[in-house]
Every structure is written in C-alpha cells, then in structure tokens.
Task: structure prediction
Amino acid sequence: MTSIPSNPVCLSPAKRLSVLRQFLQVSGLITTVLLCGCASRAPWKKESFALATPSAPAGPAAHTNILSLHRVTVSPLFAGQPLVYRTGENSYERDPYAEFLVPPNQMLEQCLRSGLRNGHAFAQVLDPGSELKPSCAVEVSATQLCGDFRQPGKPFAVLQLRFLLYSIEPAHHGRELWEREFTKRLPFTHRTPAALVAGWNAGLQQIMEEVNTELNRLAVPKFAPATTSVAAPDVR
Result:
C-alpha cells in the first residue's frame, strides 16, 4: 500500500500531486470493496414455522366413545410466537427472526386434534363447533417448548406435554380417566431454527405414538353413542 512520506513539504509539487493521487486511488478502492461487501450481504430475513401433524397407521377405533379436545394451553414462557431458546438455568432468549406462523396454543391444538384422530382410540375426535355430544374430554398443557442451548455444541429440542382425560357424561361428570406427562429432549446438529422445529416435530410424533398406544389400551367406560345436540323433528 502506498504511504505518504512524513515530510511531504520536501517533495516537489509534481511529486506531491502524484503521491496524493495514489493515496486517493487506494482509498477509493478500499471504500468500493467495503461498500460492495455490505451491499452483497443478504439482509436478515424473518422466518415463520409450523409444527407438522403427527401421523399414525390406519385402523379401527378402539372405543365407541366420542372425544372432545377441550383445551390446549402453553406456559407463559413459551406462549408467544417467537421461538424461545434457553441459554442458562433461568435465562431465555426470544428469536426476533424466527417465529411460529400462529400462536403456539392454536398450532398445537390443531396438531393434537389431528394426532388423536389419526390414533383411532376413539370413534370420533370432534372439531370445534360440532353438534355431536362427546362423552370424554381431554385437556393438554405444554409446559416446555424451547430450544435448550445451555451446553455448548449440544443443543436440544425440548417438548413437554401433559394430558388429562376425563368423563363429561352426566352420571360420571368430571371423573378422571387418564393422566400422563410426556417429555422429549431430542438433540439436533445444526443450530438453526429449522433444525429446532424438526426436533419438535420428531418429539411430537413420538409423544402422540405413546399417547395413542396408551389410549387404545385404556379401559374407558362404554358410554352410549353420542347424539347431536339438535333435537330431531317431530314427525307424525
């Protein structure tokens, strides 16, 4: 790189002009490289993710009961749309560039309803607003939904779900039929939001496989088939 002498006054005017031109050329080149580098750098792009619906093999329903997914709640620590990373024993970070497409309780509700329906433990798993009367209801709470980055080089996708199944038949209303909590900590290699979401998907798939296996084997009381809540017309 051309340097300007410490005492340029001793140089002739022509020499000083030549050195100045060289200095300006080098400075301009450096500025151009820096500007091009900044311009070519892709700006941070916000990403949106959704969990996948758990799959299950086809088969007949194990019970004649009709099930309603009554409520899905998410811990306030993870209830927002930005992905959450655990960085210490009591410290967490929200990713400003990666988030769920919809609030996680709505997303989990859709995935869990489909997962229960695909599991064939019940004759029906109702959609919201259905006019069928369910005989059982299940509530699910997500107590953990985060990426655990406390161990350098060993990130984990953490998902913890608690299920509570109970009767809503008039004669047995509120009777608890089954309760379980499932926790999955799945390692992933690439420290990216996409890899974390893939870990959650794998964890949700494993949890629903265990849930449906237990529900299929559960000794659920045989209630009379549910009917619609709308009275049949009086035909005479």
In short: The two ends are 104 Å apart (CA to CA).
